[in-house]
Amino acid sequence: MQLTQASHEDLAPIVDLVNQAYRGAAAPGWTSEIELISGPRIDLRSLTALAANGTAMVMVARDGAERLGCVSLTPADDGQWYLSMLAVNPATQTGGVGKAIMAAAEQFARERGATSVKISVINLREALIAWYERRGYRKTGEVGAFPYDDPSVGTPLRDDLALVTLVKPLV
Q1: Is 39 helix (H, G, I), strand (E, B) or coil?
Q2: What are phi and psi of 21, to 5 degrees?
Q3: Which end of the chain, N or C, is less surrounded by CB atoms within 10 Å?
Q4: What is the Cα–Cα distance from 114 to 48, expressed in whole angstroms?
């Protein structure tokens, strides 16, 4: 597997991959948000803006020509990078691809001076939080408001969503 910065041609397939991984119509697995939020997780306009903002890097994981997954990394001046939009093609989930993408993303950040990686996870996604904790991430105690007023994240199906912050040191 190789993790590289996504090209413009990768963006539309990444939108499809992310939406299938997070909100696909198939029977939801432990990685799905379909019971919490409906609608797309991201659209092409939002992803294009993210990729073009100059700071965030949208990365794609490949095995040859096949797109296995993706992740977004955003550096901060304090050495703490923000990781988001980790998604694995549903056809290859449970095969260690997510772990490999995380390790490659952390190494990418480390090589560019990152001292830690920060993530935000929906509070009710306990299995996903536990997965991150097994990878060395720890809850900071910070819980942020879910962006209920942002239609670009989909339509929340519950009123008790929040974002839990986890951090992993890269020393």
Answers
A1: coil
A2: -65, -40
A3: C
A4: 24
CA gap 83, 96 in Å, rounded:
18
DSSP letter assigned to residue 7: P
The domains located in the chain, with CATH, are: 2-169 (3.40.630.30)
| Strand ranges inside 19-99, DSSP E | 37-38, 57-63, 66-74, 80-88
Confidence of residue 30 (pLDDT cuts 50, 70, 90): low
Q: Are 96 and 89 in contact (CB under 8 A)?
A: no
Predicted local distance difference test score (pLDDT) of residue 54: 81
pLDDT digits (tens, 9 = 90+) for 138-168: 999 999 999 999 888 899 999 999 999 999 9
Query: Model confidence at 91, in pLDDT bands (50, 70, 90)?
Result: confident
Cα gap 165→21, rounded to integer Å: 21
| Residue type at 79 in one-letter notation | G
Rg (CA), the chain: 15
> Which tokens go with 75?
């550096």
- Residue recorded with tokens 């001076």: 113
Q: How far apart are CA 142 and CA 156, in angstroms?
A: 21
| Secondary structure of residue 106 in the 3-state scheme | helix
CB contact at 8 A, 18 and 71? no
